[in-house]
Amino acid sequence: MSTREAYLEKMKAQIDEWNAEIEKIEAQARGAQADAKIEYEKQISAMRMQREKLRERMRDVNEASEEAFETLRESVESAWDELAKGFKAAADKYR
């Protein structure tokens, strides 16, 4: 497995983890009162946006040549860290 393939697998695993977290919060939202549901939906929407941004980065990495991947990797790592922080903050609000 190449470095890029391993990196893509790592990103996919993160997306899968985030999907599970979103599903958990969606289940909590279904049981919430109407006013709380609005707040849950805002958070779920923000989390989905973070997930989609990571998917976009994943596509960029997948489409890059091996040479471009090494250059792209550093900027993707930085963006990924920021996305993960935002997602964690949103998820922590409902744990």
Automatic annotation (TrEMBL):
It comes from the Bacteria. Keywords: Coiled coil. Residues 8-71 form a coiled coil. This is Coiled coil domain-containing protein. It comes from Pseudazoarcus pumilus.
